[in-house]
Amino acid sequence: MRRSVRAKLLALVLAPLVVGVPVLLGLVWTWGSEGYERLLNFKISSDLVTAHEYFDRVRIGVGHDVQALAESHRLVGLLAAQPAALPTLLAELAPGRRLDFLLLLDREGRPLAASQPLAGAAAPRLAWPAVASALNGTALTTVERFAPEALQYLSPALRERAWLPLVETRAAAPDARTAEDRGLVIHAAAPVYDAKRNLVGVLEGGVLLNGNLEMVDRINAIVYRDGSLPLGSRGTATLFLDDARIATNVRLFGDTRALGTRVSQAVRERVLGRGETWLGTAFVVNDDYVSGYEPIADGRGERVGMLYVGFLEEPFRSAGRMAMGALFALFIAISAAGAVLSLRWARSVFRPIERMNAVIQCVEQGEADARVGEVASRDELGRLAGEFDQLLDTLSAKREELQRWAEELDRKVAERTLELREANETLRRAQQQLVMSEKLAAIGELTAGVAHEINNPVAVIQGNLDVMRDQLGPAAEPVRQEIRLIHEQTDRIRQIVTKLLQFARPGEFAGYAEAVEVNEVVADCLFLTQHNFDRRAIEVITDFGAGARIEINRSELQQVLINVIVNAVQAMPAGGCLSLATADWGEDGEAVGAVIRVRDTGQGIAPEDLSHIFDPFFTTKKGSGTGLGLSISYTIVERYGGRIEVDSRPGEGTEFALWLRRDARYDESPSAPGFLRRW
User: Fold this and answer.
1) Gap between the Cα atoms of 370 and 376, Å rounded
2) What is the DSSP code (8-state) at residue 240?
3) What are the residues whose beta carbons fall under 8 Å from the beta carbon of 528, sequence distance 6 or more?
4) What is the pLDDT averaged over residues 592-608?
5) Three-state SS for 119?
6) 509-531, pLDDT tens digit by residue?
7) What percent of the chain has pLDDT over 90?
8) Is 543 within 8 Å of 581 (Cβ atoms)?
9) Is residue 82 pLDDT above 80, yes or no?
10) What digits encode the pLDDT tens for the residues 36-71?
């Protein structure tokens, strides 16, 4: 036990150093690395936004310059008065606006004059989106990719400036070309109007970006000002034509710029292929840079180049490693110092525990007088040792008291045993009652089986009666009355069997529910039972006030009403008055359904019979009734969520009230106990 306590305390002391510190350092390293990556990506994203804004400003500036020249009175005046002087004017204006070419086009897009002699026959320039937009009256500035022939046409000098040998670059996409001879141009065009605001031409101009080192140096100076990067890092900016660097301050070696080198295939596919922005570390020429690339699209929406900014990553990683190393060293030093102090404190903890453990072992061996005694510790452990000694004293005093309680407990157990025996007897009687209920349910199942078995011979009797009557023909006349009686009695057996089946299996006789008019069904039932009224001189009074439609099976509702009406008629053998009334049923101001009341003026129902009229097989018509009519009616109404109420006074008559809901709550399998429910 002593070794176990020591081991646990040592584990508690050393756990922060052996387990906690490595886990904590791992989390710090992971979170630090993730935070470092997010920080670098945020910075390069911000740098790329700044570079994009500057490049947009340059592009917009070229467009403004061309538009300003197109609106100058001098150009419009010469176009109208001295067209021959236009080339001289354009050659004078282009350098002042730092434009590499300037053309004046007619309304068909054909060149009228140029800042430099054009190399080739004049051809319409409607294919360029900027020119087409200007001819429609809207100035437009785009970035376009000019083919070598297009540059040659404008000026052989532009073609020479655009030509650039391609340098084999690691991880670049395969390319059979050895040089880049196309040009990336900021292309602008603006409409030229005369004094009457009639469109008379288009002024077209542009700036070649190939070899435009001044622009990328300016972008680099704006994005990466002095002091914005740690010592040893440097920022870069680049313009790409497709995947080739045409203007960059990335160094290939020494002061040689990496013109003609190409971007990696992964960056090309993502930026030029899918049109996405690249943010993250990438290998640039000969080193890892935190890089940001975004696509440059021409006037047709096609990606023709890329804008890039980035900075050398290694100084950032070195600074991060130094910071993490210092943090790790600090964690380890603090943990080691804490472990030494914890070991010293642990010693003052396990010594009093060892003494208490020794006393426990002595007590287990029968030394009831063993005690811990005084301990040097004055903390919770010292108090625990004193309380432990007092507990041992208390245990000795309680031992004798427990003996007395044991004797008293034996007496109480004997008393409780007698009570339990009586409870068991009560439970046995309840079980007998449950068995009786199960027997009653079995009788219901037996009734259903017997009813099904009776149907077979009844069908045979009826079939043979029909055959016998057909075979005998006129010879059956002497026994015609007997055959009729047999046929009536077999039909009565069939009706009794049907009622038995309906009682035993009400769900099998259930029909589909539909919305029916109460008044219409009651009227139909009166018509079907009309012959009973005529024979007994019964007066019928109706009051149809119900307007609600109820949801029930129409045939089953007719069965219930006919059964109640026939019972009422049979209760008045000497004649009387039969009242049928309908009304809407509402509760708390809401429509619930309808109520149908059937009242007779017969002798009424005896009070001792009133509570049994819905019981199966209960009847007061000795020899003529099965006792299933009202029981089946009760089951049908209850199945659709309604209820039947009866009010009868001997000598005054009986009233049955059928409460039917407009939304049926249908139960296809009512349980047997439901037949015994009453109001």
Assistant:
1) 19
2) E
3) 558, 562
4) 87
5) coil
6) 555 678 888 888 888 888 878 87
7) 28
8) yes
9) yes
10) 778 888 888 999 999 999 999 999 999 999 999 999
- Distance separating alpha carbons of residues 546 and 597, to the nearest angstrom: 11
- Are the beta carbons of 208 and 183 closer than 8 angstroms? yes
Cα(277)–Cα(283) distance, rounded to whole angstroms? 16
Burial string for 85-124 (b: 16+ CB within 10 Å, else e) reads ebbebbeebbeebebbbbbbbbeebebbbbbbebeeeeee
Element of type H or E holding 325: helix 314-364
**Average model confidence (pLDDT) across the chain:** 80
Q: How many CB atoms lie within 10 A of CB 655?
A: 18
User: What is the share, in percent, of the chain residues with pLDDT greater than 70?
Assistant: 75
| 272, amino acid identity | L
Q: Distance (Å, rounded) from C-alpha 271 to C-alpha 32?
A: 29
The answer to whether 103 and 204 have CB atoms below 8 angstroms apart is yes
Dihedral-angle region of residue 210 (phi above 0 means left; psi in -120 to 50 means alpha; beta otherwise): beta
Confidence at residue 19, expressed as pLDDT on a 0 to 100 scale: 65
Q: Which pLDDT belongs to residue 15?
A: 65
What pLDDT was estimated at residue 192? 94
Number of other CB atoms surrounding residue 392 within 10 Å: 17
pLDDT (mean) for 88-104:
92
- Phi, then psi, of 617 in degrees rounded to 5: 70, 10
Cα angle: 91, vertex 92, 95; to 5 degrees:
85
Tokens of 87: 């080339």
Q: What residues are paired with 248 via a beta bridge?
A: 238
Beta bridge pairs of residue 238: 248, 308
- Partnered with residue 101 across adjacent β-strands are 206
For residue range 98-147, list pLDDT tens digits in order: 999 999 999 999 999 999 988 877 678 889 999 999 999 999 999 999 99
Residue 373 is which amino acid?
Answer: G
SS3 (DSSP) at 48: helix
In which residue are the tokens 């000969």 written? 286
Strand duo 111-114 + 538-544: pairing = unpaired
State pLDDT tens for residues 171-216. 888 988 899 999 999 999 999 998 888 999 999 999 999 999 999 9
Which tokens is 643 given?
A: 């209820």
- What's the alpha-carbon Rg for the chain, to the nearest Å? 55
Buried b (16+ CB within 10 A) or exposed e, 41-58: eebbeebbeebbebbeeb
Task: Give the burial class of 530: count Cβ atoms within 10 A of its Cβ; 0-12 exposed, 13-18 middle, 19 or more buried.
Answer: exposed
Query: CA-to-CA distance for 369 and 392, rounded, in angstroms?
Result: 8
